[in-house]
Amino acid sequence: MAMLCLSKIKCEKSHKLQPLFSFPKSLASKLSRDPQILLEASTDYGHIIHKSPYAVLEPSSIDDIANLIKFSNSLSNPFTISPRGKAHSVLGQAMAQNGVVVNMTQLNGFRNGSGIVVSNCDVKSPLDCYVDVGGEQLWIDVLHATTKLGLAPLSWTDYLYLTVGGTLSNAGISGQTFRFGPQISNVLELDVITGQGEFVTCSREKNSELFYSVLGGLGQFGVITRARLPLGPSPTRAKWLRLIYDDFSKFSTDQEHLISFNNKNDTNAANYVEGILLFNKPLLDLSFYPTPDQPRIKSLVTKSGIAYVIELVKYYDTNSQPRVDEEVDNLIKGLNFVPTFMFQKDVTYEEFLDRVHVEELVLRSKGLWEVPHPWLNMFIPKSRISDFNEGVFKDIILKQNLTPVILLFYPMNRNKWDDKMSAVIPNEDVFYTLGLLNAASGLDEVKAFEAQIQQILQFCNDSGIEIKQYLTRNKTPQQWIQHFGTKWQLFEDRKAKFDPKRILSPGQGIFQ
Ligand code: FAD
C-alpha cells in the first residue's frame, strides 16, 4: 500500500498514526488526521460514547464527498463514512470508528453565499416560495435568512443550532408538528449523494424512493447536500403561554383538544403546543415565570409531586395584532388548568424560536453544557399515556433521586407524517413524544440515568406499551428489526439498493 500523506503539516502533526488506506491525491489533501480534529470527531453532545475515526474529510465541494464514497466503494474492504453535522447526537450516531467522518459544516465556507437561497417568490403568493438550503446549514441561519424577507419555514425543532441534514435524517419535531408535521414532511426536493457516490436529485415525483428513504433515514442511504423547503409568511411576534395543571388527565385532554385544531390554514388554531413536567425535586427551573409567582408555583409542585405545563404559542404580526388577544382567549376558553396559573410572555418570533439558545448560553457560562447527556426520546401511543404517567412519571422518575434538566411530553397527529418515509412512529392517530433530557455530573450519574432509562424501557415492554424510540438508542440487530417493525424489510431493501456496501453512518449501529 502506498504511503498516505494527507498534507505535510497534518502528517507532521500525526506522524505516529499508521496509514490504513491509500487515498487518491485529490482526496488525501482534504483529509485531516490532526489529533485535535480526530478527537472532536470522536465525541458528540452526549459525551458518553467515543469512537475514533481514521480521518476527517474537510470537503470543499460536494464532489469531494462523492469521491470519498466512490473511493471507499472501490476497495475490496471498504471503510465506513459518517456525515457529521453539528454532532448534537447523544450516542455516537455521527461517529465512524476507524472510518472517515465528513465535517459537513466545512462546506458552508465554499458555498459563496449560496448555502441558503430563497426563490420563486411573488409577494402576492408567498405560499409558493421555497428556500434551497445546504445540508450543512444551521436552522438558525435559515431562520435569519428567510425572516429578513418576511418568510419562514413551517416546522422547526426546539433548538436551532442543528444542521438541516442532521434533523432531516431523524424527523425534526417540535410544538409545530401537530399542525405542519415534522420537518421531514416539509421538504419539496433533495440533492443526495448515495452510498455509491451518485449525485441524485429527488422528490415525491422524481427518484421518489430515494427521497422517502433518506427522510428519517438515520443517514443510512445518502448524504443530503441540499434540501428545498416550503416557506410561508413569517409572523413577527409570539404570545407565549404556560398553563399549569395538577392533574394529568386534564392536562392531556386539553393538549389533545388544542392539537385537534390542526388545519394548516386555520388561523384560529394554535401555532405551537408542547408540554413540560415539573417535578418536586431540587433544581426546579421556574425562570420563565414572574418572580412574585414562583413561590405559589413551587408550592403547587410540592403539593402535587408533579405539575404538568402546557406550553402554547400564538403568532401574530401587525395585521393580526388587533385580534390576537381574542384569539388567545378563544384558544384557552374551557381549558382546565389550575385557576390563575396561566402565565404569558410577548416576544418576537425569533426570540421565541431561538429560546433554547438563551438557555445554552446560561449553561455554557456555568460549564454545564459540555457534560454527559443520557437522553431518552420516544413516542408513546395515546391509548397508553395514562399508564405511562403512573408507571414512568410517578413510579419511576418522581421516586428516584435523579432530576431531568427538562422533561417534555406533548402530542402530535399521525396524519401529518408520511408513512412512506423511513421514520417510525406508533400506529395510533395521536401519539405523544417524551423528551427525557438529562445532564449528568459524572460517570456515576451517567450510570444511574442509564439504569433509569432501562427501567423505563423495561416498564413499557412489560406493560405492552408499543413505544417507538426517537433519536433511537443503540440496539441489537433483533431490537432494530423490532423497532422498524413492518418497515424493516423495506428499510433493509433500500439499504441494499442505495448503500449496498453498508458504508454510511455506522454510528447508528444498524448494519455494522
Ligand atoms: P449529527 O448529530 O451531526 O448527525 C445525526 C445523524 O445524521 C448521524 O447519523 C449523521 O451521520 C447523519 N447526518 C448528519 N448530516 C447528514 C446529512 N447531511 N445527510 C445525511 N445524514 C446526515 N431534535 C428534534 O427533532 N427536535 C428538537 O427539538 C430537538 N432539540 C434538540 C436540542 C438539543 C440541545 C440537542 C442537542 C438536540 C436536539 N434534537 C432535537 C436532536 C437533533 O435533531 C439530532 O440530534 C440531530 O441529529 C442533530 O443534528 P446534527 O446536525 O447535530 O446531526
From TrEMBL:
It comes from Cicer arietinum (Chickpea). This is cytokinin dehydrogenase. It holds the Pfam family FAD_binding_4. It catalyses: N(6)-dimethylallyladenine + A + H2O = 3-methyl-2-butenal + adenine + AH2. Residues 49-234 form the FAD-binding PCMH-type domain. SUPFAM superfamilies: FAD-binding/transporter-associated domain-like, FAD-linked oxidases, C-terminal domain. Belongs to the oxygen-dependent FAD-linked oxidoreductase family. Its cofactor is FAD. GO terms for molecular function: cytokinin dehydrogenase activity; FAD binding.
